[in-house]
# Entry
Amino acid sequence: DQQVKQNSPSLSVQEGRISILNCDYTNSMFDYFLWYKKYPAEGPTFLISISSIKDKNEDGRFTVFLNKSAKHLSLHIVPSQPGDSAVYFCAATYSGAGSYQLTFGKGTKLSVIP
Amino acid sequence: EPEVTQTPSHQVTQMGQEVILRCVPISNHLYFYWYRQILGQKVEFLVSFYNNEISEKSEIFDDQFSVERPDGSNFTLKIRSTKLEDSAMYFCASTNFGTGGEETQYFGPGTRLLVL
# Structure
C-alpha cells in the first residue's frame, strides 16, 4: 500500500545545477506535505513543507511545488551543492489523521557531483 | 536549537528479551511519535502519544509494544519480547501544532536495534 511514491531511487546532478526530486501520492485526503533529508546513521531532518492550499513554497535554495490535480509534488534545489548529497524523503499527512502521523515515500538518494 | 535526543544509539539484544528505547522530545512539544525503518524500506509510523495516552497506532504496534512518558521529559518505547523482525532503526519525533493546524515533526537521530 504505497500511498506516497518516490519512483526514482537515485539521482545524480552536477554541482551548481538544479536537482528535481519527485513525489506522487494516491490518498486525496492528504493536505500537508513535507520533505525530509536524511544522512546515513542520522534521523530525518525537516527541510520544507507545503499545505494543500498553496501550490508553491520557497525557502532559500529549496522550493516545493504542489500539483493537487495530478497528486504530485516536487522539490527543487538550486543551485545544488555537494553537501546536499543525502536521501530525500517525501511525507504526507492530513488533518483527519488524528495525530497527523506521517506517511513516507521510500526516498530518493541524491548525489551532487563536484 | 532544541532537538530530539534518543538513547541508546545502538542496541543489540537476544530474541525474546525486552528492550526499552528512550527519547527526550523537544521541551514545549505536545505530540510524540515513534517510527521505525527496517533496512532498505521506508520509514513507518508506529504510534503517537498525546496528553499521556496513545492517540493513534498502526497495525505494527501490537501487544508486544508499549509507550510511556514516565516523567516530564522522557518518552519510551518498550518491546516486551523482541523478534528477529523487530530489527530496525527506531526514530522518535515530536511536534507542536502550528497556528494553521499544520505541524512539522522533528526527528531524533534514531536507535539502531539488532535482534539476534
